[in-house]
Amino acid sequence: MKPLVLALALGLALPAMAKDVATVNGKAISDTAVNNIFSALNISKPTTEQRKAIINQLVNRDVLLQEAAKQGLDKKADIKANMQAASEDVLINNLLQQWINKNQVTEEELTKAYDNIVKGLADSREYKVRHIVVKDEAKAKEILADLKANKISFTDAAKKYSIDTNAATDGGELNWRNGNDFIPDFGNAVKAAKKNVLTGPVKTTAGYHIIQVEDERPVSIPSFEQLRNTLLNNLSQQKIAQYVESLREKAKVQINEK
C-alpha cells in the first residue's frame, strides 16, 4: 500500500503543506513567507486586516522585483555589489544578534552602570542660562555696556546681535543644562557667575559671549527604571564592540593602505 493511502487508512495526521496566499505572474507567495514576517514583528495572532496588509506588501515587492529583473537591473555590476553588501549585512546582524542573545547584559552590570552615573552626577548642578555671542570682542563690550545701562533688553540684544541664531530667537535662552555639558571656558564662567548678574565678554571658539545665569539647581538624577533601556542598549553595544575586537585579534588582518 502506498504511504499516502496507508496514512489515510490508519487515520494518521499528515504534515500541513504550506499554501500559497497569492501569485505574481505565476510566482507563488507562500503562507510561510507571511508568517515569517509576523514572527519577526512578534505578532503571534495577526488579524485578518493585518494579514491582508502584509500579503499586499509582498505582492508589491514581487511586482517590483520582477520589473527590476525584467529591466536587467540585477545584472548591473554596481547593483550586484550593493545586493551582495546587503546580504552580508543580514548575515552580520544575525551573527551579532545571536551572540548578544547568548551573552546578555546582566542585572549586576546594569546596576553597576547606573551606580556610576549616579556617582558622576552626585555633585553636579544644572543652570538656566541665556547668552549673546558675537565674533568681535569690541562689539561684545559695547553690547554689555548697553545692557548694563538699560539701553536695550537682553532679549532684544540677543535677537539683534547674537550669531547663535537658535538661541537668539528665544532671547538667548539655553534653558536648563548640566554645567559640565558646556564647552570648558563657557562652563567655567557659568559656574562662577552670580545669579542674574551679567558676565563677560567670555571668549570661546564660537566668539565672545555675554552670559546671564537666571537660576541653578542640583542635577535631577533619573531613576534606574527610567534609564534601564538606555543602559541596556549602551552596554549591549559595548559587549558587541568587545566581541568584534576579540574576533579581530584572532584573525590575520593586514591593512595595506597607510
TrEMBL record:
<keyword id="KW-0732">Signal</keyword>
<protein>
    <recommendedName>
        <fullName>peptidylprolyl isomerase</fullName>
        <ecNumber>5.2.1.8</ecNumber>
    </recommendedName>
</protein>
<dbReference type="Pfam" id="PF00639">
    <property type="entry name" value="Rotamase"/>
</dbReference>
<dbReference type="InterPro" id="IPR027304">
    <property type="entry name" value="Trigger_fact/SurA_dom_sf"/>
</dbReference>
<keyword id="KW-0413">Isomerase</keyword>
<dbReference type="InterPro" id="IPR050245">
    <property type="entry name" value="PrsA_foldase"/>
</dbReference>
<comment type="similarity">
    <text>Belongs to the PpiC/parvulin rotamase family.</text>
</comment>
<keyword id="KW-0697">Rotamase</keyword>
<feature type="signal peptide">
    <location>
        <begin position="1"/>
        <end position="18"/>
    </location>
</feature>
<dbReference type="InterPro" id="IPR046357">
    <property type="entry name" value="PPIase_dom_sf"/>
</dbReference>
<dbReference type="InterPro" id="IPR000297">
    <property type="entry name" value="PPIase_PpiC"/>
</dbReference>
<feature type="domain" description="PpiC">
    <location>
        <begin position="124"/>
        <end position="215"/>
    </location>
</feature>
<dbReference type="GO" id="GO:0003755">
    <property type="term" value="F:peptidyl-prolyl cis-trans isomerase activity"/>
</dbReference>
